[in-house]
Design goal:
Layout (H helix, E strand, L loop, with lengths): L10 H25 L4 H9 L18 H14 L1 H22 L5 H21 L3 E2 L17 E5 L2 E11 L7 E7 L6 E7 L5 E4 L13 E11 L9 H8 L6 H24 L5 H26 L7 H29 L9 H9 L10 H10 L11
Parallel strand pairs: 1-4
Antiparallel strand pairs: 2-3, 3-7, 4-5, 6-7
C-alpha cells in the first residue's frame, strides 16, 4: 500500500468532477476528431484531477470508485467527449480487474500474497507516477473473451517474452503500459500482462482513419519477443479466466461511454433546435420525445444491470446484461440518426456536434467480446438451448 489513504469521494462528487472535466474536453473534441489525434490534453487534465486513480482503492491512494460509481462517471465523460471516455475506460477497467473484481474471486493463500504485491506495484505507478494503462485484448480470431488468443508469453528468468499481435489497440501511442492477455506454452490459463511502452521488439503499425471514435488512436501492436517483467503479471495465472467466467459484467464497460454519448445527443439536439427557433414545431417535438424515450430506456436498464453486478451472476442477470448491451449499442446510433432528422440538413455539417456523434455512435455495435451480434445470438438461445449461460 502507498500509505496515502484518503476517504473515498461520494458518487455525486465524482460525477460533478467528471462534468467539469467533460465540459472542458468538449471544447477540444472536434479538433481531435478532425485530426484523428489522441486527446493528450484531456488526459493531462484527468491526471491533474487525480482521475487516473479513479478506480484505485483508497488504501492505495486512489479515489475509491466502485464498478457502479465508475459507470456513472463514464456516462458523464461520454456525454461530453465520447472518444476520451472510451479510451479512459481501458485504463479504468484494469484498475477494477485488479481491485474490486479480483477481491471477489477465489485465490489460494500464495496467490493472494502475489496479488497483493502486484496491486501495490500497479497502483503505485498510477497514483505516484501517473502511469496510463491501455487494455488491447482483441486479435480478431474469435468472439469469446478467452477464446482465440494466439499471443504467446514464454516464461524466462525474471518474466516473459511476448510474441503476437493485438488489433484496435486504443491509446496505442499514448499508454505507458499495454495490458494484454496471452497464453504460455503448455498452459491453458490466460495470463494478464503489462507490456511496457517502448520496450524492445514492440512495434505500432497500421493507419488510423476510421469513420468514428477517431481520437482513440487504436492502431495495431506487434510484439516480437518483448520482455515483460514478472511483476507486470497483474493477476495470478488463471485470474483473468476467473474474471471472465465469474464476473462477466465487466464487459459492459464499453457501453458506459455510449449511454453518455446518448445523453450528449440529447444535449446537442436540444441546443440545436432552440438555436434554430423551431422548438414549437410539432414534428420537432415528436422527434424530441422519441429521443428521450430511447435514452431513458437504455440508461435505466444499464444502471439496473450494473447495480446488480457481482460474482457468479444468475442466468437471468446475464440475460439482462446482454439485453442492456444491445439496448445501448443499438440505441446510440438510432438516437443519433433520429437527431439528425430532427435537426434537419444543416445538422449534418461540421462543426455541428451531431455530425460527429452520429459517426461515433456507429462504432459501438461491433465491439467485442460483447458485440451486438454476440449478445443477440446468446439472447436468442437463452432459455431455449441448453448451455447458453456460459458468460465468456
Amino acid at each position: 500500500m502507498t500509505g496515502k489513504m484518503r476517504p473515498a469521494m461520494r458518487r455525486d462528487e465524482l460525477v460533478e468532477e467528471a462534468a467539469g472535466l467533460g465540459r472542458r474536453f468538449a471544447t477540444r473534441a472536434a479538433k481531435f476528431d478532425s485530426e484523428a489525434g489522441f486527446p493528450y490534453e484531456d488526459f493531462a487534465d484527468l491526471r491533474d484531477a487525480r482521475f487516473l486513480g479513479l478506480c484505485v482503492p483508497t488504501e492505495y491512494g486512489g479515489l475509491g470508485a466502485s464498478f457502479a460509481d465508475y459507470c456513472r462517471v463514464s456516462n458523464e465523460l461520454g456525454r461530453h467527449a465520447p472518444a476520451t471516455a472510451l479510451t479512459f475506460n481501458m485504463h479504468c477497467v484494469t484498475m477494477l480487474l485488479v481491485g474490486q473484481i479480483a477481491a471477489d474471486l477465489h485465490w489460494s493463500a500464495a496467490e493472494l500474497v502475489t496479488l497483493q504485491a502486484r496491486r501495490a506495484h500497479l497502483y503505485a505507478g498510477v497514483v505516484e507516477r501517473g502511469s496510463l494503462h491501455a487494455q488491447p485484448f482483441s486479435e480478431g480470431n474469435a468472439p469469446g473473451a478467452t477464446a482465440g488468443i494466439q499471443t504467446v508469453a514464454e516464461p524466462v528468468d525474471g518474466g516473459f517474452l511476448v510474441t503476437g499481435r493485438k488489433i484496435f489497440a486504443s491509446l496505442s501511442e499514448a499508454a505507458d503500459l499495454h495490458n494484454i492477455v496471452a497464453l504460455s506454452p503448455g498452459d491453458d490459463r490466460v495470463r494478464f500482462l503489462g507490456v511496457p511502452a517502448g520496450a524492445d521488439g514492440l512495434r505500432i503499425e497500421g493507419d488510423w482513419d476510421p469513420v468514428g471514435m477517431r481520437a482513440t488512436l487504436s492502431r495495431n501492436l506487434v510484439f516480437d519477443r518483448v520482455f515483460v517483467p514478472q511483476e507486470n503479471e497483474w493477476l495470478p495465472p488463471g485470474g483473468f479466466d476467473q474474471a471472465a467466467t465469474r464476473w462477466p459484467h465487466f464487459y459492459l464497460t464499453l457501453s458506459f461511454t455510449y449511454v453518455g454519448l446518448m445523453r450528449g445527443v440529447l444535449d446537442a439536439t436540444q441546443e440545436y433546435v432552440l438555436r434554430s427557433g423551431r422548438q414549437a414545431h410539432p414534428i420537432k417535438q415528436h422527434g424530441w420525445a422519441e429521443l428521450q424515450v430511447i435514452y431513458e430506456q437504455a440508461r435505466a436498464l444499464q444502471h439496473a444491470v450494473v447495480d446488480e453486478a457481482g460474482t457468479d451472476p444468475a442466468p437471468d442477470s446475464l440475460r439482462r446484461a446482454w439485453a442492456a448491451m444491445v439496448a445501448v449499442m443499438e440505441g446510440a446510433p438510432q438516437m443519433a440518426s433520429l437527431a439528425l432528422r430532427v435537426g434537419g440538413g444543416r445538422a449534418l455539417l461540421k462543426p455541428e456536434p451531431l455530425e460527429r456523434l452520429f459517426r461515433d455512435a456507429r462504432c459501438g455495435a461491433t465491439m467485442l467480446p460483447w458485440s451486438v451480434e454476440v449478445c443477440l445470438e446468446r439472447l436468442g438461445r437463452a432459455g431455449l438451448v441448453e448451455g447458453t449461460e456460459a458468460p465468456a
